[in-house]
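Our collaborator T.R. sent over the components below with a one-line note: 'Predict the complex.' Nothing else. No constraints on interfaces, no templates requested, no preferences about which chain binds where. So this is a plain run: every listed entity goes in together, and whatever single assembly comes back becomes the starting point for the next discussion.
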Amino acid sequence: MKRLLVVRDSAAAVAFGSVALTGTVPLWCSAIVVVALGLSLVGVHPLARQRRWTVLSLLLVAVGLVVLTFRGYLELPVAAVSFTALVLAHRLAGAPGASTDAQVLLAALLLTAGAATLSGDIWFALCLVAFTFLSCSFLCLSILSAHRTDAAPALRQVGVGMIAAVIGACVFFVVFPRVSWNLAARRGGPGVLGQVTGLSDRVSLTGSGNIKTNPRAVAKVKIEPDPLVRELGAYWIARRLTQFNGTAWLPESSVVGRGLTIDVAPPTASDVIQTVEILPAYGSPTLVAIAQPTRFTGAFGLSASGQVPIALVRGVGDEVHFAADFPQYSYRARSSSRVRADEPQSDLLTLPPLDKRIASLARTIVGDATEPHVRALRLETYLKRNYSYALDLDGDVQSPLANFLFDSKRGHCEYFATALAVMLRSLDIPSRVVIGFYGGSRVGDRYVLRAGDAHAWVEAYVPGRGWETLDSTPDAGRAAQPQPFLLALSDLVLSIEEAWRSRVVDYAFADQAELARSVARTVRPLSFPGLPNLPRNALIYASLTLVVIVIAARIGRRSEKKPRHPATKFLDAFLRRLHRVKLAPEKSDTLDAVAERLSRQHHPLAGAVDVARRRYFEARFGRVPLRRGEARWLLKSFDAAAARHRATRSRERRTS
Amino acid sequence: MKLPARWRAYRRLRITRMGRAYLLVTVGVGIGALNTGNNLLFLVLGLMLAIVVLSGVLSERVVRDLEVRRLLPEGAFAGDTFRVRFEVAKTKDRGFALQIVDEVLGASAFLPQVHGSAMVSAVAKAPARGPLALSRVRVSTLFPFGLFEKIRDMDVPQVFTIWPRPQQFPVEILEGIPATVDGRTRMRNGDGDLAGLRDLAALEDARRVHWKKSASALKLLSVERDREDRSQFVIVLPAALLGSQLELACSGAALVTIQLLGRGADVGLMASGTHIRPSHGRAHQGRLLTALAYVGCTQ
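Returned assembly:
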């Protein structure tokens, strides 16, 4: 019984997990359910004898949730799912029994239905399938558990049936027409892992660079024209920072413009167009695009009610961010490969009081070069060659920049960018630090930006040449540096998620129509003389389906052959002989009735039938088994008697 | 108008309480899916409908290819409980969670699993005296999920004899019944030395059968052994008895039969055209009780 309850509780846990992974259920509600699950798994049911007041308290909670919903603190689906979760916890804490088990499973089923409205992730599908298998196994076992019997054959049948049911459900999903406008499922929140991007609103030289090893995808981008390379190696600009206080680059919060379309530079015909999907893990409202972005437009926030167009806000330094908060966004951006030549708008030469050695070092590095472009390149090259990239840095230091340049000589991209920008400014070359991403690896037909791709570099203004991109970070430290295994796993998860989203979550009537067209399409028609052209694809699909069904039926029909009772085998053989002599019992007759009838009629074979009948009953139920050869001997005797009877009858017929 | 057997539905479906709740949730999910167009709800709906179909398919596999045989004792006394056995044979696959019910007998048994053949017994209570016509046995299963109960009614016609309950005669009836002594009859149905072989009489004890000789002769032959002299009695039931008087008379006759046979006497019976020669033994007792069960029955 305990093991059975573990199966039930596992099903409930998986169903609750499908909801919990969305991150939308209130924490207190999740805690109650987890505690109830834990207690039930160890066999403790605190509410076994107290039902009335707990039901009253559930009703009070329901009223509270309704009030919160009407006041706008909770969304209706979230409130409904939370209440269902509390009902599940209440039932788990109750005394186990047939009705309690049914209530637990029904509450869990309602939770999975609720999770379908709150989640769009592939985890939901895994939880749904797991819940189905666990709950069906529990129901099957509970029917047989009260009686000591081997449940393995029953579970095998149910297991095979469940696989067929999942396939059938997939076919139903594909074929059933979508009669309403398909609203994309609610995009989940960042989930239990939270937001991870290293894109913050400032660059501070006091942190470590652990983000570099994080392979989580934060954005997916479709690029037109498609560059068709595996690693893009591009700079993605998010924000430009101009004010340095000695330890950090600070943002400017002034708003320059607002609208559905923001042009940060004149767009050109040769711009690269990017369709960007910001994932929940991104964690920042700032838009990002390949250097140099020219236009941002078509921004949508993705929520339970579908896509909502949102405005964009332009700040100082061409930073563009979303005007509203959503867990996920999508937008389009255009980028030009042309170097921007607009004059610097703000004072990009200001420096706080710094270690005098920094300026001196800058002058030493540039040597006798006078051209700003050459000076900049020398500084960039010097830093790249003479300093090493490191993520594990010492704790807080008094002057992190001086420590980087003169003591440790190791740091991450923010140190390299800061050092370059400061030294450029010390040589009267306007410069600013740019933060964003570097890289872009291809997954499917899109490019993925990972949390570890977050990067900082420098833009320096050179009169006559415009804004030049300078990156003094050693090459190995630019893009994300996750473990190869984690990277491969992340890519696999991304591919699966992409397929899940495009083929399941966003599956629409148009996709069904396309599927129907592809089935009916006669790419290479099969033509037989006198017959119309046959759709090849449809025939292939139908043949494959038939083959699968036949194989499955054969596998299902194959079962262990248990030998029948010897007396039953003897009876079957005897019945076949009776059938041959046309004395077989009719459908409603028993053998007893046949023997009695033959005896009343004084049939010559009545005695033989009676002998066989009585011997069968003795052997089958009377614990006097047939001896070796006795069954064969009885049958032979009957055959001989039947032959004699036939001979007698034919003699009588000839005589008459 | 009664439909021919092959046209009548031979399966019935009963939705359990949990099944009703499940169907309600399925309808709710279906409405939600159609209304919102949420693809994940379609996925849930598809799975729920597939479970319903799977339940129907698996329960049909359980009740299909099933044979049930009812095994009854020779008879039972009215008002007494007796054990009825059901032999269930599954010619293909396995059957799970089979509930076997004979509504006429009021007996029900549960078979958790059957592969090949299996036996299960149940306790029933014998109603009034007389032949009891048994017809159908209901086989049902909640397998696999307990959402629906699939019921199959199987025709297993049989006649079961319910003997009169042995009861003391009221004095006034006893006075009206003459005792008839039939004199001595055969001396060759005892337990002594072998005296010979003869044909086995109807309803005679099968333990006297000589099987090997019977198989050779192709008829049942009973062994005759010398016996000692016994007292002989013939119970005569007047034809004019009806209703409760007849029942009392049969009950009393049953008691007397048992008591006399228990004392080693030969007992016979004359009632309603039935004449059974005095004899002894358990099988003879069964014959007498059966004859008493049929007294006054027109069918």
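Summary for T.R.: Chain B has a mean pLDDT of 83.
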